[in-house]
From TrEMBL:
<keyword id="KW-0378">Hydrolase</keyword>
<dbReference type="GO" id="GO:0016787">
    <property type="term" value="F:hydrolase activity"/>
</dbReference>
<dbReference type="InterPro" id="IPR008135">
    <property type="entry name" value="Competence-induced_CinA"/>
</dbReference>
<dbReference type="InterPro" id="IPR001453">
    <property type="entry name" value="MoaB/Mog_dom"/>
</dbReference>
<dbReference type="Pfam" id="PF00994">
    <property type="entry name" value="MoCF_biosynth"/>
</dbReference>
<feature type="domain" description="MoaB/Mog">
    <location>
        <begin position="5"/>
        <end position="172"/>
    </location>
</feature>
<dbReference type="InterPro" id="IPR050101">
    <property type="entry name" value="CinA"/>
</dbReference>
<protein>
    <recommendedName>
        <fullName>CinA-like protein</fullName>
    </recommendedName>
</protein>
<comment type="similarity">
    <text>Belongs to the CinA family.</text>
</comment>
<dbReference type="InterPro" id="IPR036425">
    <property type="entry name" value="MoaB/Mog-like_dom_sf"/>
</dbReference>
Length: 405
C-alpha cells in the first residue's frame, strides 16, 4: 500500500485561526482515486521545523503533499525549507517570473518586487503551473518520496491537485484499489442509533462505511470499488434500514427538495423562531432559491401560552397575507419560541395545512437552534413531496402537539 502524507503549513492553521479545509478535501479526493492518506501533520511558520518534517516524511512516505507557505511574504518559508531538506540551494525560475509579470500586466499593474520570491525554487525542482494565482507549485524527489508543493489558497490548491498532481500520480503509480464514495444524508438519528440499525447489514470485504456528523445532519458514506454492481443493492438496504430519516441520497436536504419540486412550484417563507436562517440557507442552493416567491422575518416573541391549535390559525393568516404579495405553492412557517426550548412549525400545501409544536431535549447554541428549526421545517416539505408522514421522529426533539387541517 502506498504511503501518502500531507503537511499543512502556517501558524493560522496550527493554532486554529482558520479551518484546514484543504486537508479534508484532499483526503476525500485522494481516497476516491486510490491514494488513501496515511498521515497528516501541521507545522507552523518555522523554517527548520518544516525542513525537518519534510525530510522525515521523505524517508517513510511514497507521496508527500506540502500545502501552503509559497507566498511573497517573510512568513512564507516552504520553498526555502524544501531546499534545506534536500541540501540544495534556491534558483530563480525565469519562466515563472515571466508568467507572473504577464498576470499583472493583464490587470494593468506592475508586479511588485516581493513577488520574485515566489519564483525561487529548490534546485532541480519541476515547476507546477498555477493558472489562477501567482504562487507556482513544484515537485521534487527526495529519498523514497515524491514531494508536491502547493499554495494554501483553496481555489488554487484544488485546481492544481485536480488538473496536474493527480494526473501525474496516476502515471507514476499503479493503483488498483480506487473507490467511489456513495453518500446518504440523514437527520433525526444519532450515530449510535444508525450503528445499531446497521447491525443487520452485511458488507462485502471490498466495501466499507464511514460517518460524518455535522450538526444537524449525519452523512453516511459507502466506499466501494468503481462500477461495483453490489452498490445499488447495498444503498437500497441502507435506505430501508434508515427509513424516512434519509433526507437526501447523494445530495443534501435542500438539493433533494429542489429535485422533488414540480417545475412550476414556488415557496413562501415566514420566519420567527428561526430568525431568517432558513431564507439565508436557501440562497446556498440557487435552484431552490429561484423558487422563493416571497419571504418575511419577524421578531421572535417568546410565547409560553401558544398551542398548536392557535398556531394553525396563525399559519393560515400568514399564508393568506403572503399570498396577497406573491402566490406560492407551499408556505413554510416558523412560529414563536417558548422559554422551555419549544418552537412551532407549519407547512401549508394545496392539500391542507400541517403544524407541530416541538421542544429541544438538550441545550443548543442560538445558531444551532435556528439551524435545527429550519431543518425540521424543510424536512416537513421533503416528507410531503415524498408522500411520507409529515411529522417525523427526531431523537433530539420531543413533539408536544400536532395538527392537520
Amino acid at each position: 500500500m502506498l504511503s501518502v502524507v500531507m503537511i499543512s503549513t502556517g501558524e493560522e492553521v496550527l493554532y486554529g485561526d482558520i479551518t484546514d479545509t484543504n486537508a479534508a478535501w484532499l483526503s476525500a479526493q485522494f481516497f476516491e482515486q486510490g491514494f488513501a492518506m496515511t498521515r497528516r501533520v501541521t507545522v507552523g511558520d518555522n523554517y527548520e521545523a518544516l525542513a525537518k518534517e519534510i525530510e522525515m516524511c521523505s524517508l517513510s512516505a511514497d507521496i508527500v503533499i506540502v500545502n501552503g507557505g509559497l507566498g511573497p511574504t517573510s512568513d512564507d518559508l516552504t520553498a526555502a525549507s524544501a531546499a534545506m531538506a534536500a541540501n540544495v540551494g534556491l534558483e530563480q525560475s525565469n519562466a515563472w517570473v515571466a508568467e507572473m509579470t504577464a498576470k499583472y500586466q493583464q490587470v494593468g499593474r506592475v508586479m511588485p518586487a516581493a513577488n520574485l520570491k515566489q519564483a525561487m525554487l529548490p534546485e532541480g525542482a519541476e515547476l507546477i503551473d498555477n493558472p489562477v494565482g501567482t504562487a507556482c507549485g513544484f515537485m521534487m524527489q527526495l529519498n523514497r518520496a515524491w514531494l508536491f508543493f502547493t499554495p494554501g489558497v483553496p481555489s488554487e490548491f484544488k485546481i492544481m491537485v485536480s488538473e496536474q498532481i493527480l494526473p501525474r500520480l496516476k502515471t507514476m503509480f499503479t493503483v488498483s484499489d480506487s473507490k467511489v464514495c456513495h453518500r446518504l444524508y440523514t437527520y433525526g438519528l444519532s450515530e449510535s442509533g444508525i450503528s445499531d440499525l446497521f447491525q443487520a447489514l452485511t458488507l462485502p470485504e471490498t466495501c466499507s462505511l464511514g460517518y460524518r456528523s455535522s450538526l444537524p445532519f449525519i452523512e453516511i458514506k459507502l466506499f466501494a470499488p468503481q462500477n461495483d454492481t453490489q452498490v445499488p443493492i447495498l444503498l437500497a438496504q441502507m435506505a430501508e434500514l434508515l427509513g424516512d430519516n434519509v433526507v437526501g441520497e447523494g445530495e443534501g436536504l435542500l438539493n433533494a427538495i429542489a429535485d422533488l419540486l414540480a417545475d412550476d412550484a414556488t415557496l413562501a417563507l415566514s420566519e420567527q423562531s428561526s430568525g431568517g436562517f432558513a431564507i439565508n440557507w436557501l440562497q446556498d442552493v440557487p435552484s431552490l432559491s429561484a423558487r422563493l416567491a416571497v419571504s418575511e422575518v419577524m421578531a421572535d416573541d417568546i410565547d409560553d401560552n401558544a398551542c398548536a391549535a392557535e398556531f394553525s390559525t396563525l399559519i393560515a393568516l400568514r399564508g393568506q397575507r403572503l399570498h396577497l404579495h406573491a402566490p406560492a405553492t407551499y408556505t413554510l412557517t416558523t412560529g414563536p419560541s417558548s422559554t422551555e426550548g419549544g418552537f412551532m412549525l407549519g407547512l401549508t400545501t394545496p392539500d391542507g395545512c400541517w403544524c407541530q409544536q416541538l421542544i429541544f431535549k438538550r441545550q443548543y447554541s442560538n445558531y444551532n437552534r435556528r439551524w435545527i428549526i429550519s431543518t425540521v421545517m424543510f424536512d416537513m416539505l421533503r416528507r410531503y413531496l415524498q408522500g411520507k408522514e409529515i411529522f417525523g421522529c427526531y431523537e433530539s426533539l420531543d413533539r408536544v402537539a400536532s395538527e392537520h387541517l
